[in-house]
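Quick illustration, no need to memorize.
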Amino acid sequence: MAKPDSKKIFFENLSGAGKAIAVLTSGGDAQGMNAAVRAVVRMGLYVGAKVYFIHEGYQGMVDGGPDNIKEATWESVSSMLQVGGTVIGSARCKDFRTHEGRLKAAHNLVQRGITNLCVIGGDGSLTGANLFREEWSGLLTELVEQGLIEADAVQRYSALHIVGMVGSIDNDFCGTDMTIGTDSALHRIIEVVDAIMTTAQSHQRTFVLEVMGRHCGYLALVSALACGADWVLIPEMPPEDGWEEKMCQKLSATRSRGTRLNIIIVAEGAIDRHGKPITSSLVKDVST
């Protein structure tokens, strides 16, 4: 007797009937956000839940209104997989950092029966979402005291469930293989290296590239491996004292073997053993 497909059973047992989910993107945009939004919407609709877009991130949740919180349909996320950025918008929101702003946001969600929130963003966005979850019951109590919602709404919407999806090109979040946007960022770095290598080879030059990543050296390390860079500097492994001389010796050795170009990749947050930043300008001066 054939065993039942466990995945099929799992999905068949999911039910979102009577539930409402909202999805928002916050902070800096990253390639892949639209694919994540699409997946949330279509899976939510598949299990029978109502799904809402919250436009312009937390600002849209605080401001509320039909222009900012809209019900999504299956067709509303069509033809967006290949589009960069985020089609539902993203914005920095000072209002959400205040208690009053979070109170307005809670009121706007309760009005639509939303108790499930999917936040796609970086560290600040997810930290704000967790604070919102922790304050949720207290916010509902305040709304009752102010006469903005009925008393039974506190029990009906007692818990706020949050799913955080890390939208960050830095790949600086543990527990996931690759955060949203990392793969596209790597592609862009490799494209740039490919574009400058012909010029570097033609004129026997050394190129120093500084790549993003903040305090994480993932992009620098993986792009250096992918393009065969001669030297890479990342914050997780500060170089030993005297790295400048060792790097120059390495570059000279490769040139003596007939190589016509050198590529050095510097992570945005690269530091030495004493915590002093290593910038691309410093590396350029050292290598000339």
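The chain has a mean pLDDT of 91.
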